[in-house]
Design brief:
globular; 2 strands; 5 helices; 55% helix; 118 residues; single chain
């Protein structure tokens, strides 16, 4: 996985400048480490999808942190700004789609199958 590619994708998703994203860079590194630990041994060719999934995970966590304040409205003259949880839900769906795309290169840790002994 490529930390620079993950950060660049995160910048595109978040709309932040490199300077604005500086405090959030740790999210990208954490997401990369989390997914790197799940990459299948011998998995080849999925680097772009894994980078995209790590960036999507970092973006979802960024949106979660940003939406930790209550929903609010702001109006100034004819301009009205509304903050809602819709952006966070969209980021979550984006992360889930990116994770699904990278799934062939990741160990499935959400499914457990074991024989029952009687």
């Amino acid at each position: 996985m490529n930390p620079q590619a993950i950060l660049e994708r995160f910048l595109c998703l978040s709309g932040l400048s490199p300077e604005e994203a500086q405090p959030w860079q740790g999210l990208c590194e954490e997401a990369m480490q989390e997914l790197s630990a799940r990459v299948l041994t011998g998995a080849e060719g999925g680097t772009a999808l894994l980078n995209a999934a790590a960036a999507a995970l970092a973006f979802y966590r960024f949106c979660t942190a940003q939406s930790s304040t209550p929903e609010s409205n702001f109006a100034a003259g004819d301009v009205r700004v509304t903050k809602s949880a819709a952006g966070m839900e969209a980021a979550r769906r984006f992360w889930l789609e990116a994770r699904r795309a990278a799934a062939p290169y990741l160990r499935d840790e959400e499914f457990y199958f074991r024989q029952v002994r009687s």
